[in-house]
Design a protein that fits this description.
Distance between the termini: 66 Å
Helix content: under 10%
Shape: elongated
Number of strands: 12
Order of helices and strands: EEEEEEEEEEEE
Largest sheet: 4 strands, antiparallel
């Protein structure tokens, strides 16, 4: 997973020549969906190193350890605006929240126990999963803590499509 360090200082980006991508996590496993914490000192990401996808947190740009934030599998990490909580999608489609208390040096942290918030109906399926075409989170966390989600359409509620051929002939008196 390659990352570019986030901008520093009052929303002004660093000059482009100073923002060079570099390897952040390089293993033989699949890592992706990296998300910077709001202060830019941590990165949450998903990895399948345990045999299933889990959410991890590491200090940025390093050095330091890594901490598993999920238990029982997880994908699509997203930070709360203040960086003290991390959300992710559990493998059972429940949105989970994990408290992330961080030491002042951002080198040690102990993620709290994941708390299930609610079951989702995110539009996950062919070409939208972890490695698929839309390999990105299908939800966002608003500044007020609410969620915006792309949900799957309910097949039973789908409206029928009616095709009218030769419709122009019906316009003549």
């Amino acid at each position: 997973m390659n990352l570019v360090e986030p901008s520093t200082g009052l929303g002004r980006p660093e000059p482009a020549e100073e923002r060079t991508p570099f390897p952040f996590v390089q293993t033989s496993f699949d890592e992706g969906q990296g998300q910077f914490s709001p202060d830019g000192r941590l990165v949450a990401y998903a990895s399948n190193e345990t045999g299933r996808y889990e959410v991890y947190v590491r200090p940025f740009p390093g050095p330091g350890g890594k901490w598993r934030a999920s238990t029982g599998g997880g994908i699509y990490p997203r930070w709360r605006r203040d960086g003290e909580e991390l959300f992710y999608l559990g493998l059972d489609n429940r949105l989970m929240a994990v408290p992330i208390p961080v030491a002042p040096d951002a080198r040690t942290l102990t993620p709290g126990a994941p708390i299930p918030l609610f079951r989702t109906r995110l539009a996950i399926g062919g070409n939208t999963g972890v490695g698929g075409y839309l390999s990105r989170a299908l939800y966002a966390v608003a500044p007020d803590g609410r969620f915006l989600m792309v949900v799957a359409a309910d097949d039973a509620a789908a409206s029928p499509i009616t095709i009218v051929q030769n419709w122009a002939a019906g316009l003549k008196p």
